[in-house]
Specification:
three-stranded mixed β-sheet
Amino acid sequence: MGSTRNTCLSTYQTTQPVKCLYFDGASGALGENGTMDTQMLFLYGNTTGPPGQISSAQFLWDEYARAQNLCDWLQGHGLDAPGQGIEGIVRMSAGFELIWCNFSSPSLRLVSRFNVSVPLLGYNRIPTSMEDSQQSDRTLFATEQGKGEGLPAPDWEIDWEHEPFIASQQWDWFTSTSRTYSSEDLASAREPSMRLLDADLVSLYSSEYQQHLLSLVEREREHLNLTMLGIWHGDASQKSRRDAMQQLMRRRSRHRVGDINSQEIARFRRNIEQLVARVVNKNPHEDHGGHTFSWSHICDMIVKNFAKRLVQLQRLLQQDFIGDGERPATTKRRFALLRERAHALLMPFFEYSLDLETASGTKQQQQQSRKAHASLDRCKRWYLPWLTHKEAPTAELKESLGQHFVGHAIEEVMDGICSILVGAGVSIEKTWLRDFNHEPKKFDDEQQQRLRDEMRIWHDKVEELTAWLGWSPHWMGCDRLCAWDVQE
């Protein structure tokens, strides 16, 4: 940011599409909370780094050595051919960053290089409390920082009292990295200059890492009070339930890979090597035998379609439809809004039984059950790629997509969403026909309690669904926005 002495800014431009190895998650964030687990497992077969480290901080801060080791792995496996092979490693911190391995590659050209250091102040400035904290961190950084072979270590000696932009550099660094984020923070639109070949990926959530997944599931069952089917069965008190739903929603942030066994580590590293070798020889514009396809866009469509509307449905179910002394017309108007929103969610899948009012009780139940099952099946399959593909897919394509673990994950997510939505929708329709499909009438005490109980059951199920989905970044926000100049 120009706030150290002799700081130069080099700007490069790619001359052609380049292939990179991408580590998902906040893999560029230096910390011991799991963000770097995957790349360390890949490089060293553990999450602590190579043997012989003086301290964990020594390896944590030694980005030069980590970058060099990643590039050495590509070179050692013959996968880094300039202009053709894997030429960089992409990671994410506040934004996406690129480790470039060979600056003599024809895929890269230097646009400009100049010194961006700023003149020092002519007086002693009093550091802020944040700067004092940063200064201690920089001291640790300078002490622990190693340097890659043939690479100079950076100069972290900073004249804190005379540098004019120390206070603002961290804010400017963060905003500059995050400007390319989309307003929805969706994976497929987060970095427009990078295209993810998400059919070519290795994930420790895949079913081939059975022991790792079983240990993960067992820990979650114990910690989060889950049944064998993953259903929460904790304390029913309101505060305990609220806290449990928050923990369940954020459970993936606690997932670690430290207990994975040596056989699965070997499989993980071997799978990455095979995947990278396959991508090196692959046309970057084609997936699945020439069919352009993106799992990210499928996932984004699901999130965009359901995230906000599920929360809206949950809040509508939470309201007291009757209230104290409310007129029957008000109760009906509130329930009609709930029915309207539920209908909007179900409309693409749901077929109404239009003759329910004239059918007998047994026939009515049979029709409802048959229609509900058909609606559930349509909903679950709505986003499966072979139903939305523009061209009729081949049997080979259908088989490859159907066997992909991301496809299985999408099926499971849609099964969870649709089971709750169709169940709630059918229940809301039954309640409408029973209690509201006529001129407004005042409810007696028994009817009031029945309505409250039914809506509370579906509110709790929708709340548990949102916690299970864990899309918390899409459900967080501020009631009041900060002023434009607030930095802390």
